[in-house]
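re: that chain from earlier
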Amino acid sequence: MPMSIPAVTDLDTLEGLMDLAWPALETSTAQGWLLRSAGSVTQRANSVWPQTCPADLSGALTEATNWYAARRQPVIFQLTHRPENAALEDFLDGHHYSRQSETIIMTAGAGSRRQVDPEHRIVLDDAPSQEWLELWWSIDGRGGAPERAIARSIMLGAPSVYASAIDEQGRTVGTGRLALPGTDAGLGWGGIYSMAVHPALRRQGVAASIVDALLAAGSDAARSDYWLMVTAANTGAQELYGRAGFAELGRYHYRQAPLRRAPSAC
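^ sequence. v structure.
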């Protein structure tokens, strides 16, 4: 039996859940915008989330620009495809902000999980092991050990279950994370993150086994609805999640300020 459609599928709810599940290490506000920073590790944790539309877009942008400049970071917006963001999109077009990282939000409701017979042992824990971090970072990370440590701090900012696929030699060959927000808005919801499989073992059922294990862990934690994000370019992952019962709900992308060139020395 396929998974049902979640009872609550509004983007307001999901945007709040996604912020809780991948929290920035430092935040501020600018006229209804949430400013997020985490040492430039991941776009989400270092971007502006426009929770509301300010009356003075220019003034809000100046505040955001100054806040990020103090942290030596570019201004990046995370914008969900929704009518409320149309004016801001036009405003950023006028300031030559680039458009990046088109991402699909997928959701699934309660129902029978895919009963996968895993070839690899799946181990669940409430924190990422060193092997888990090293594999995930080698595939999805940007930077070295300091940046990886920041990513770990971000993940530990929300209660989560971490799944590791272990091969016969005891090596971690796949990872996944189920974020379990603890607020009233998050009750009943779980978010799948940090899916990674060793390149030599892709398309062998490792990722499907991890998803199945995370959904089982979510059921044990009284979660009935799930979300995840996947880049629009990653059609293989979209097919995997579709087979697990997920369907597209919405999309978002990032807008980044144009790079400013230093004055010529000539």
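The longest strand covers residues 98-108.
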